[in-house]
Design goal:
By secondary structure, the protein is of the alpha/beta class. About 9% of the residues have low confidence. It has one domain: Aldolase class I (TIM Barrel, Alpha-Beta Barrel). It has an eight-stranded parallel beta sheet. The N and C termini lie close together (8 Å). The chain contains seven helices and eight strands.
Length: 201
């Protein structure tokens, strides 16, 4: 595994990949397409915070998305959505939010088809929320039971909380506000990557 820092900054040369979140507005496809015109070789993830993720699979695949992450809570047939994502040529990411009624152990039924599991460390919504350290047992359980899967954390993650995430087993980091608001964005990204690298086995 390699440490991955997703962010919204312009320091493309320091990033392994880019996260480009998508919400269901009328021009979402145009929105997701625009970064590909600039960053031809970037690796793009869409974090789909939508009720019907299957509706967006084809447009995102056509736009060139590499990793399609969706929340399992509103989905009746998770395996079917995973299959559709795979058939479209994208990797599958499964996301759970803090207040979910789905236990992390219940993810076991989907692990054969998942490439990434995203553990949200804030409730989905606006940036700048406080990091929820009580989500780390979920990350620890996933890393203990699935040592080779990519585990992503998103929400309130920055230089002050990165060690907690990395120590628990996360190797994919989404950081927005903490990086954008940093005096030296490149240094913030590099610092977080180095912390994650220390904990990778």
């Amino acid at each position: 595994m390699e440490p991955t820092i997703f962010t919204w900054t312009s320091w493309m040369e320091t990033l392994c990949q880019i996260l480009h979140s998508v919400i269901p507005w009328s021009n979402a496809c145009e929105t997701i397409s625009s970064p590909f015109d600039i960053y031809k070789n970037a690796y793009f993830e869409t974090h789909m915070m939508v009720n019907s993720p299957e509706q967006w699979i084809e447009p995102m695949a056509d736009a060139g998305v590499n990793l399609y992450t969706f929340h399992i809570e509103p989905v009746k047939d998770v395996c079917n959505v995973c299959r559709l994502v795979q058939e479209s040529g994208m990797k599958v990411g499964l996301a759970i939010k803090p207040a979910t009624k789905v236990s992390v152990e219940e993810l076991a039924r989907y692990m054969e088809v998942a490439d990434v599991v995203l553990v949200m460390t804030v409730e989905p919504g606006f940036g700048g929320q406080s990091f929820m350290a009580d989500m780390m047992p979920k990350v620890e359980w996933l890393r203990c039971n699935y040592p080779n899967i990519d585990i992503e954390v998103d929400g309130g993650v920055g230089p002050k909380t990165i060690e907690c995430c990395a120590k628990s087993g996360a190797n994919m980091i989404v950081s927005g506000t903490a990086v954008v608001g940093a005096p030296d964005q490149r240094q913030a990204i590099t610092q977080m990557r180095e912390v994650v690298q220390r904990y990778l086995k």
